[in-house]
Amino acid sequence: MHLSSLLSFCIVILPVVAFSAGEPLSLPLSEAIRMAVEKNLDVRAELYNPAQFEADINRNRSIYDPLLTLQTNFTDSTTTSASADVGKGNESVSFLLNSSISRLFWTGANAAIYFNNGYASTNSKIVMPNYWQTGLGASISQPLLKNAGREATEIAINVSRLSKFASLEHFNSKLLGTVAQVRNEYFKLYSLREESEVKKVSLELARKILADTKARVKAGVLPAMEILNAEFGAVTREKELIDAERVVNDQIDVLKLILQIDRKFGDLRTVDLPIREPYEASEDEGIRKALSRPDIREQRHNLEISELQTRVFSGKTRPDLSLTASASLTGLDSTYQRNLDKTFTFDYPVWSIGLNFTYPLGNGAAENDYRKSRLKAEQIALQIRSLEEGAANEVRAAVRGITAGYKQIDVTDRGRAFAEERLRSFIRKNEVGLATTKDVLDVENDLATAKSNQIKAVVDYVNALTRYWQVTGDLLEREGIRVVEGDADKLYSSTR
Questions:
Q1: pLDDT of 204-232, one tens digit each?
Q2: Are 124 and 90 in contact (CB under 8 A)?
Q3: pLDDT digits (tens, 9 = 90+) for 405-436
Q4: What angle is formed at CA 189 by the lines to CA 6 and CA 271, rounded to 5 degrees?
Q5: Of 138, 191, 247, 265, which is most buried by a Cβ count within 10 Å?
Q6: Structural domain of 380
Q7: CATH no. for residue 467?
């Protein structure tokens, strides 16, 4: 092959071919993103956090579960007292069998229904030494100031619920970063593979130059020194190719790890090419979308939690005033059946109503809990402002990156065209003895650099687009990915 014929081969990058052992895998970008969403270990692990908060929500809802209490006790005692006859003790036997069901209500009230039974027997000289006693009634205690109302009662439930929403937003952020990483690593593999092909073409050209140089030296047209220059150029390019192929293999391993691809696939082939079309990125629209980014929404949920706790802690600084009320039917007789009959005749009712008031003097614990929660809320509000201002700056930088990236494509396209024409000129000069072999190799090296710059410019432009869609929070929607609360709920429900 003549040197000028090989130049056209040098200018056009060869198609990508498999170079690793094992079955190759052709991978479209959409499939790579799907695999990352479904299989990436970090993404899968992050979904466990909202699932755990779902468990917290259901655990805290159990405060409304009715509580059944059963109590039994038997006592047999012999005692003496100053009023007893000398040498004679008081003997008594008692038996208790009590039951109750209690429940908390959203108002903060605790209500209970109870059914108590007792038997007592004594050797004392009383009207009824052996008797049964029964009580059937209900009681309620309703806080009026401290701990009153649904918000105070369900504080743990609501904190867990808002924490779950925050963790879902954190999962969204993790997913957003992972999708951006997949896009960047995907096109990085494309870039490295293309640069490896550039190195391969450069090596082929250097070997052709070496063969032509040896023939011309043998014919006496060139001095022997030219062979050393040609051999050095070929060896240098061979080393560069080896390094480039190693980097490609390293990048394949990076993608396999992210996508959890089976090791049986020895090679990954990127199918999609980076786009070169211009993209109109709106700074104002980008900032508007960025203010609803998952990381900002996560902090807003955290602010809701802190504000909720502040309101509840504010209520806890008030005195504890509770209204208590109870009512019961009672019976007492020597036989259990007559005792029950008396209980349900409504002849022996007992009822009570009252107020309980407690207040710690100083109340330092409640006051400082309230102050701490207010400080926490103000701190999170400032963090949200910082995130919003940082997001706006990131959008502006991303827009500039898109503009500069698109311009770089045009510059590198022209640079490659100039380098190709320059190499053609030096090849013609070399053929007539006006340029040395080293001159041709140096100019060819400039062309390889121009090709690499062109590849990097195209990939940098795609990465700039990815960055813009990431900082605006628009990337998941563009890729058709949507996270819903049910994803975590399914994980929670499937755990046994």
A1: 999 998 998 899 888 888 888 888 989 99
A2: yes
A3: 999 999 999 999 999 999 999 988 888 888 88
A4: 80
A5: 191
A6: 3-57+156-304+375-493
A7: 1.20.1600.10
